[in-house]
Amino acid sequence: MTEPLNRDGAVAITTPPTESKSRLLQRFWERYFYFYDTLNESPPYRRMVERHAALLQPAAGDTILDAGSGTANVTAVLAVPGARVTGIDFCEPALERCRRKVPTAEFRVADLTRTLPFPDATFDKAACSLVLHYLVPERQRFAATELFRVLRPGGALAITVFAAGFNTWRVYAETLRERRRTDGIVGTAIAGVRYLINTSRIFYYVWRIKRAEQSGDYRFATAEELSSILAGAGFQVESVEPTMAGQCWTALAHKPAAPLR
Ligand SMILES: C[S@@+](CC[C@H](N)C(=O)[O-])C[C@H]1O[C@@H](n2cnc3c(N)ncnc32)[C@H](O)[C@@H]1O
To answer: Does residue 253 line the site of ligand 1, with CB under 6 A?
Structure first.
């Protein structure tokens, strides 16, 4: 399969990660997913997830892609009745879990560092939540070009990435603050104890992710960098806003509609 061209007509990118490196990464995610959904207890995470639906406004008749579906939390909010939602992820074991969680959606294995297995202009809308920063910068641009290609002209993309300097403690502190408002001090303390082990594991996994970022395997983004990646792929960037207690950026972008003849 040939790599797609970028807007200047040049081959977009160099080689994707090797098979063995890709498998290592997939195993990392497989293990993380045993406790990943504890994040659903965090209001800042849930708001970020819901924000993708608010920005994309999924409706009956829409074809929607969730790129990097993980445990299908974003897929679930996009899968409104009558919408045809497809989740893709390179972590195959995760997909079984996704199928159980959102039986109305279709889930397929696909690697965002490679050409996506869809023809041009397949989808009306796409979400890509907490995935792009796990790619090296050149592959981030490549993946953005692929998301652009599989969207129809006029189609919308909602995308979230870790902000440069991502701080897990800020998300945790905001989670505790908000839960204290809704559950009170006692309720928050009980939840804190109940989720203590999983929360510690999430801290540990995010620490590993941050270490990988420092060594250059991943790349978190400033708002300007995210805009530039999207614009470089051809998108019109409508908005970039802080989410997840200010530790992520969520952008809305459109593929320009085909020019009138
Ligand atoms: C933090 S999870 C995000 C899951 C979900 N979108 C969410 O917002 O909760 C990151 C996901 O990206 C997937 N991923 C990472 N690199 C990928 C790649 N190259 N191709 C496809 N999926 C990838 C992982 O398997 C994982 O499911």
So the answer is: no
